[in-house]
Amino acid sequence: MDQLIRLLGYAFVQNAIAAGIVIAIVSGIVSRFVVARNMAFAVHALAELGFTGAAGAILLGTSPEIGLLVGTTITAMFIGALGVRVRERDAVVGVVLAFGLGLGVLFITLYPHYASEALNILFGTITGVSISDVLLLLAIGVVTLVAMAVVYRPLTFATVDPEVAEARGVPVRALAVVFLLIMAAAVAEAVQIIGVLLILTLLITPGASAERLTARPGRATVYSVAIALVCVLGGILLALITNVAVSVFVTSLSFVIYLGARFVVGPTLLGREQRRRDVGAGGEGAAAAS
Questions:
Q1: What is the pLDDT of residues 34-72, one digit of tens each?
Q2: Percent over 70 (pLDDT), the chain
Q3: What does the pLDDT read at residue 41?
Q4: CATH number, domain at 206?
Q5: Of the residues 6, 46, 92, 267, which has the maximum number of CB atoms within 10 A of its CB?
Q6: Is 80 exceeded by the pLDDT of residue 157?
Q7: DSSP state letters, the chain
Q8: How many domains is the chain built from?
Q9: What are the Cα distances from residue 137, in Å, to 26, 46, 131, 151?
Q10: Per-residue pLDDT, 283
Q11: Which of 118, 99, 105 lies closest to 57 in space, CA to CA?
Q12: Range of 10-14, 190-194, 283-287 with top mean pLDDT
């Protein structure tokens, strides 16, 4: 404990915690919709092609973080333009992913030096972020959260019942593209802590766990953010104590929480919600009958 308190006084640890909080909040909110909209494969594609963008930026001598964001954004636009509907989206994602990975290999091959920055993006470097990195993450996070706040209600409607939402004039296709762009920003942020290879942990597991705890969309979003915060901050603190990679603990905590939500806590909470809905429906029926 004394060692941990001493480490918390270092600037790099404070930067890591600040970055982790921003990333967890954004990832938790986006994760709930990723799971509800069955877009796990799209997350994988955004992460892999974000790496391609970072590799291209390194080849050009510019910031890999900016290249990462550009790569995820371009990928989101391609997927959104070519395959918004669910039945065609996976095929489009696969086509774009294969082409993008080929470009990434080309960029790394053309780079004349050892691409350590690219490897850092693959595995994550949360304990190596600077204050400027934190400010950049904060700026991306604020823009992402504002965008989510603007589209939250219609996006929830389009996620729960897209046919009815479209019939009532909700721009379902436009919302799908906007959400892909929001996902692109979230991926670019989350890669900083967990790396491209483990991106599904932060953008899938919190939302998947939250779905097992409640059927209410708003409450599920809150649970998803809380789970992401526990995994990220817990992973950082455990990594500091043990000197093991942060990603090991983030993925382990996420997996344990998911198992607990699915088999231990979730059935109880969902059952309680169902009983409350049944009681409320019974009361409304009795009032209507009288």
A1: 999 888 888 888 888 888 888 888 888 888 878 888 999
A2: 89
A3: 85
A4: 1.10.3470.10
A5: 46
A6: yes
A7: -HHHHHHTTSHHHHHHHHHHHHHHHHHHHHHHHHHHTT-HHHHHHHHHHHHHHHHHHHHHTS-HHHHHHHHHHHHHHHHHHH--SHHHHHHHHHHHHHHHHHHHHHHHHH--S--HHHHHHHH--GGG--HHHHHHHHHHHHHHHHHHHHHHHHHHHHHH-HHHHHHTT--HHHHHHHHHHHHHHHHHHHHHHH-GGGTHHHHHHHHHHHHTT-S-HHHHHHHHHHHHHHHHHHHHHHHHHH---HHHHHHHHHHHHHHHIIIIIHHHHHHHHHHHHHHHHHHHHHHHH-
A8: 1
A9: 10, 17, 10, 21
A10: 57
A11: 118
A12: 10-14
Q: Are 203 and 190 in contact (CB under 8 A)?
A: yes
Q: Which residue has the tokens 């892999």?
A: 48
